[in-house]
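Ops channel
N.P.: pipeline sanity check, posting one input/output pair.
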């Protein structure tokens, strides 16, 4: 029998050796040796177990033995307490402050203790997860290598002492799993096979968190400020499909968060910088506006942010332009100390749900508000003071003078926050350019495209003629090298307008899904889907039970990159690409956070199905669907982008019609029910009737 499957009978047999040694006290040194050998045997057994729960049970059984040496009993009690804490502490990151100070966690078990080796696994986990969470470690190569080396040392010692433990080896680049396999159904196209596996494994990961980590009050163990971010990687199944369990969990969490005392005013009353104060409201309200768009509750929450913006957070600066007065504020306070008095490219997060409401309703009050704010950023992009290149958006605008950057010595480093990398150029540039594009879309005013056009041109020139040496910080080439995130906003512009204006740049940096939509090239799409399936096929524990910071659930594979824990890349370990799945199933060429263009939601669970949106727009939609089940599948589709009017939906398989439905779009959405035959490639089309 393998040690990982140690039975209770085997363990009791081993612990009986301890009892035998204890009862043989009159045998002197012989009894002492017998007792120590027996305990070492038990330590080897429990150390080789993969399950922390089972290890805790076995150690508690050992604790029941009478006559243990006082020192062993004391160490055993401390070890049991710490393993129990690892498993059951309400805050998963309880160890963070001690690891920050000491780069270790003290179990108070001496190094010469028989039980000391069992601490190595837990201490390695604590150090590595703290390093993955902390921006001041993760973003600085020297500090990251220091923490990684400490953690690796713990894992290597543990793996040597307990070679059958798969968790320690997982941290050293030896993947666990897969525990489940998905067979390819006859006739299923490659994209469908890989997408289906990715969707199901992602759903399993989400459901693990709901089943194993969701607490009575709705939290998941990382604190409200981190737990709220989890929906961002849930979107392929949360927004793309209809899973009642997952939808209900999000609804429960969002309602619970907005009912917390610090959120009762509609925005947090806890002072911090905007990247963090905005999360609780933005990441609670925005997903619910996708899931329950007709709700007055979430509409009121969205509009509450506009009230704060109008009455407290913004004003006209000395240039006569509307801007946020600080990077630090709450529902009732502003920190306008000169160092922190900056508007930034992170500020769209503050009004993320409000922007979505504006996109859907065209509210004139919001048009006036957001247009005035974006005028400020268009102006800042065009200016050149402090050495900023013309056409480049800064990451900060100072209040009240409206100057470029903050009080730091360089325009690209505002120094408005203790963790300086957070607002260092380009920071959250994607949020700002998506807000500019949305403003153009809502107003029809081309000037809001000016910063996007200028930065795209600068990026293209850089890619066509890269400099021979590292450009000086703050220069045009230096900025261009950091603007790789423009492709998302450019693809949305391409889908909205049909304009080929940015195609020369997009051909260099477009996503596999965009390449498929524009050029019909399925090869990169299939490769990306295969890679995503491979990423989720292994190391399930790294996305679930091992995670200690809930805003880092999918970061585990990043440990095995070029500058990772092993100092070399592990080519078989990839990071999941949830944005690819989201784009494919909804038709949105970018992400769901800002200016989402999701065209459809499939009202069916994300199991045994694959969906590929091939066309989307104001008057039509096309998709391929494949059901892996053996029976006909009853489902529905909800459409979001279609203009008002009458339409016809058809579903064909092998060129033969299997469903035809006529429907009308009168409001923002329309729902249509239909059936899919089993295991056939189906083509769904929506056309004006």
């Amino acid at each position: 029998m393998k040690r990982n499957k140690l039975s209770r009978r085997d363990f009791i047999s081993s612990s009986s050796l301890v009892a035998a040694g204890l009862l043989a006290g009159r045998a002197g040194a012989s009894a002492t040796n017998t007792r120590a050998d027996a305990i070492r045997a038990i330590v080897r057994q429990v150390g080789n177990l993969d399950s922390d729960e089972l290890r805790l049970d076995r150690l508690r059984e050992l604790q029941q033995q009478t006559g243990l040496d006082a020192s062993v009993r004391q160490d055993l009690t401390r070890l049991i307490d710490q393993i129990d804490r690892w498993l059951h502490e309400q805050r998963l990151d309880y160890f963070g402050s001690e690891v920050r100070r000491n780069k270790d966690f003290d179990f108070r078990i001496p190094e010469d203790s028989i039980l000391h080796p069992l601490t190595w696994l837990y201490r390695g986990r604590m150090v590595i997860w703290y390093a993955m969470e902390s921006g001041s470690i993760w973003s600085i190569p020297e500090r990251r290598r220091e923490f990684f080396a400490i953690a690796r040392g713990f894992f290597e010692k543990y793996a040597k002492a307990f070679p059958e433990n798969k968790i320690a080896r997982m941290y050293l680049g030896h993947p666990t799993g897969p525990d489940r396999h998905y067979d390819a159904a006859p006739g299923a196209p490659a994209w469908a096979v890989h997408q289906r596996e990715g969707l199901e494994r992602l759903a399993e990961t989400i459901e693990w968190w709901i089943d194993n980590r969701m607490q009575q009050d709705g939290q998941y163990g990382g604190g409200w400020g981190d737990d709220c971010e989890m929906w961002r990687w849930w979107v392929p199944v949360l927004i793309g499909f209809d899973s009642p369990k997952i939808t209900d969990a999000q609804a429960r969490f969002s309602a619970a968060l907005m009912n917390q005392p610090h959120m009762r005013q509609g925005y947090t009353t806890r002072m911090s910088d905007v990247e963090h104060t905005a999360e609780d409201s933005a990441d609670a309200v925005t997903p619910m506006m996708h899931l329950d768009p007709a709700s007055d509750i979430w509409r009121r929450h969205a509009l509450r942010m506009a009230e704060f913006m109008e009455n407290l957070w913004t004003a006209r600066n000395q240039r006569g332009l509307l801007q946020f007065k600080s990077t630090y504020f709450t529902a009732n306070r502003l920190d306008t100390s000169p160092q922190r008095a900056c508007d930034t490219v992170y500020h769209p997060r503050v009004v993320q749900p409000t922007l979505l409401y504006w996109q859907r309703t065209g509210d004139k009050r919001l048009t006036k508000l957001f247009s005035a704010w974006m005028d400020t950023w268009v102006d800042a992009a065009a200016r050149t003071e402090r050495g900023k290149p013309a056409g480049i958006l800064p990451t900060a605008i100072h209040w009240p003078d409206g100057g470029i950057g903050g009080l730091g010595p360089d325009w690209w480093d505002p120094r408005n926050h203790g963790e300086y990398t957070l607002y260092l150029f380009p920071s959250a540039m994607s949020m700002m350019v998506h807000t500019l594009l949305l403003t153009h879309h809502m107003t029809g005013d081309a000037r809001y495209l000016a910063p996007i056009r200028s930065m795209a041109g600068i990026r293209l020139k850089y890619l066509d003629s890269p400099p021979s040496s590292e450009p000086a910080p703050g220069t045009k080439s230096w900025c261009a090298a950091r603007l790789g995130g423009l492709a998302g906003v450019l693809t949305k512009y391409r889908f909205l307008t049909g304009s080929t204006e940015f195609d020369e740049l997009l051909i260099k940096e477009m996503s596999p899904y965009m390449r498929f939509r524009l050029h019909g090239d399925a090869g990169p799409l299939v490769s990306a889907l295969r890679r995503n399936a491979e990423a989720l096929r292994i190391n399930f524990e790294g996305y679930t039970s091992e995670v200690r910071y809930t805003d880092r659930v999918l970061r585990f594979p990043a440990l095995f990159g070029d500058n990772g824990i092993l100092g070399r890349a592990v080519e078989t370990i990839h990071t999941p690409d949830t944005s690819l799945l989201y784009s494919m199933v909804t038709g949105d060429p970018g992400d769901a956070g800002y200016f989402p263009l999701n065209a459809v939601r499939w009202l069916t669970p994300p199991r045994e199905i694959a969906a590929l949106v091939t066309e989307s727009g104001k008057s039509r939609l096309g998709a391929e669907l494949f059901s892996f089940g053996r029976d006909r599948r009853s489902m529905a589709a909800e459409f979001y982008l279609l203009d008002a009017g009458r339409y016809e939906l058809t579903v064909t398989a092998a060129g033969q019609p299997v469903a035809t439905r006529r429907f009308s779009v009168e409001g923002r959405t329309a729902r249509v029910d239909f059936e899919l035959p089993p295991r056939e490639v189906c083509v769904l089309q929506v056309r004006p009737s």
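N.P.: looks fine end to end. The CA atoms of residues 200 and 247 lie 16 Å apart.
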